[in-house]
């Protein structure tokens, strides 16, 4: 894979504990981030804590609560082995072997596997679009300016293409910009405008990429198309929410009416 930053999110440099001699703020923030992410899916767990880099009594208790949840020894200490359990969802999303045999099915399989692992952003130091999932999609970048919907899409396309020993950058440049991908699609003749799609839905295929158009050369949001039926596309998209925002908080599966929305479609066919 070309987008391999996620591997850095799976390790800590040393064991972290309250008042530990080898504590460092970066590793403690990673731990606190995963504790808080766990609490989003398990609100009863008592693992939500500040992401401030200080391994104090609150973080120690949150670790113990996590260890209790997972049937681990409740000592409040995070070794690499404990951290492996904390970040297991991220590892599964990126490292689980894909089983499909063609690119379109691989794209959908990879997207669905990420969805099952609950990618979610955090607010850290007052900055949205933060945390290990965002950094994994955005090659180490995070914070409020880093809208991550295209980072998510390219991570999925990269993962699927890599399973076939293909380079996704032969399809599009590595970027975080919907505009860059949209313009690339126009230049290559593989972006279909919404006006054509409304007349012929057969132009849309599962595994393709949708781009929401604000104007002819300005696109504001993107995601993976998983199915097409009766004027509706089902999608898996990052940095969205239940309202379909382009700056939401999670990876979600959505339905979108392409007959009423300005949705252009970028075809992955040249890489198939």
Automatic annotation (TrEMBL):
<dbReference type="InterPro" id="IPR036365">
    <property type="entry name" value="PGBD-like_sf"/>
</dbReference>
<feature type="domain" description="Peptidase C51">
    <location>
        <begin position="143"/>
        <end position="239"/>
    </location>
</feature>
<protein>
    <submittedName>
        <fullName>CHAP domain-containing protein</fullName>
    </submittedName>
</protein>
<dbReference type="InterPro" id="IPR007921">
    <property type="entry name" value="CHAP_dom"/>
</dbReference>
<feature type="domain" description="Peptidoglycan binding-like">
    <location>
        <begin position="25"/>
        <end position="86"/>
    </location>
</feature>
<dbReference type="Pfam" id="PF05257">
    <property type="entry name" value="CHAP"/>
</dbReference>
<dbReference type="Pfam" id="PF01471">
    <property type="entry name" value="PG_binding_1"/>
</dbReference>
<dbReference type="InterPro" id="IPR036366">
    <property type="entry name" value="PGBDSf"/>
</dbReference>
<dbReference type="InterPro" id="IPR002477">
    <property type="entry name" value="Peptidoglycan-bd-like"/>
</dbReference>
């Amino acid at each position: 894979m070309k987008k391999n930053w996620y591997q850095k999110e799976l390790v800590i440099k040393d064991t972290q504990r309250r008042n530990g001699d080898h504590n460092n703020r970066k590793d403690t923030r990673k731990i606190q981030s995963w504790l808080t992410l766990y609490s989003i899916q398990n609100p009863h767990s008592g693992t939500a804590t500040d992401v401030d880099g200080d391994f104090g009594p609150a973080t120690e208790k949150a670790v113990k609560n996590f260890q209790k949840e997972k049937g681990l020894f409740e000592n409040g200490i995070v070794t690499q082995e404990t951290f492996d359990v904390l970040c297991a969802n991220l590892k599964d999303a990126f490292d689980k072997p894909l089983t499909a045999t063609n690119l379109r099915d691989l794209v959908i399989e990879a997207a669905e596997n990420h969805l099952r692992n609950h990618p979610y952003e955090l607010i850290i130091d007052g900055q949205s679009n933060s945390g290990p999932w965002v950094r994994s999609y955005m090659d180490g970048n995070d914070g409020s300016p880093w809208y991550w919907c295209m980072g998510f899409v390219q991570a999925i396309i990269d993962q699927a293409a890599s399973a076939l020993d293909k380079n996704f950058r032969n399809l599009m440049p590595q970027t975080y910009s919907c505009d860059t991908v949209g313009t690339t699609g126009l230049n290559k003749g593989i972006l279909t405008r919404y006006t054509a799609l409304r007349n012929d839905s057969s132009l849309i295929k599962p595994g393709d990429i949708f781009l929401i158009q604000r104007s002819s050369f300005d696109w504001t949001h993107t995601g993976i198309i998983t199915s097409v039926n009766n004027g509706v596309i089902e999608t898996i998209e990052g940095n969205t929410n239940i309202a379909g925002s382009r700056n939401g908080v999670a990876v979600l599966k959505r339905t979108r009416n392409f007959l009423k929305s300005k949705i252009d479609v970028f075809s992955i066919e040249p890489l198939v």
